[in-house]
Amino acid sequence: MELPRKVIVGNDVLNTVGKTCKALGLYPNALVVTGPHTHKVAGKPVVDSLKDSGFNVDCCVVEGADLSSINKIEKKASEVLFNVMLGVGGGRVIDITKYVSAKNRIPFVSVPTSASHDGIASPQVSLKSLKSPVSVKAQTPLAILVDIQVILDSPFRLTISGCGDIIAKFTATRDWLLAHNLKNEYYGDYAANLALMSAKLVAKNANLIHEGSVEGLRIVVEALVSCGVAMSIAGSSRPCSGSEHLFSHALDMIAPNHALHGEQCGVGTIMMAYLHKMNWKKIKSVLKKIGAPTTAEELNVTSEQVVEALTKAHTVNPERYTILGEKGLNREAAFKLAKNTGVI
Hints:
Dehydroquinate synthase-like, alpha domain, globular, alpha/beta, Rossmann fold, two-stranded antiparallel ribbon, 15 helices, single chain, 2 domains
């Protein structure tokens, strides 16, 4: 079981990154991976903080999470014996750094600039360039360093997406328990309850989160970190990813780049909660309060694309048993599900 050794959520965190990494023994060579925009916002302050603490720092700015970006980071990582790699940016930067650091057995530190999904704290990565529609295991961040002001300054839509990813734990944990009961799959009560608690806290504080307050944002960030820890405890993404994520992955294949991951997972949670005979209307209400999409139109996809994604969701990861079963939904059942929940 790998767990983060340090989690800091607060103000002026970027300026203390160097001291934190040094205290963790990740010294003296550091590779900072960031994006063109996040370099200005957070990458440069992190580089400065590391240099002020005596680190030898290399910085790698990548445009995306494609194979050329992965190769660029791997080339840089092979040039020096790095003691730490820091991902400073959004979900893609965090994932690509986590992946390359794990591959090269270099400790990884997560410095997110948005709260868009639980990848900021989990051992999993989701990279389309790996030709895998689902997440794959990399490594748990040794430290997660979150500067609240940087997250506050990011587009609020990214935080909304993070909330959708957290709300997804309502159905993900139910799917996991179902797989345990029907397929005798390992089920970790502690990990499941930690993920579920995160979803409940976000649901309880939906209005506060919608206001965009510091207090509301801290709840989202801490919930995302807790979800990442739940996956570390479980040894897989099971407590945080179920049928709602399979729907999102299927939608990515059918209608790529129309909506954010967490937004799609939120809509998927509404429909999967309906299948589980949960209070799907309450879940939909929570998402609406936060300002998250609850319909196909709000995801910028068509009714046909939602129905197709529902019929294909069970094929995305056949080894993961969910409420969709082994045969999935036929077109008629998928249309009825989306219609009854008001998604289409």
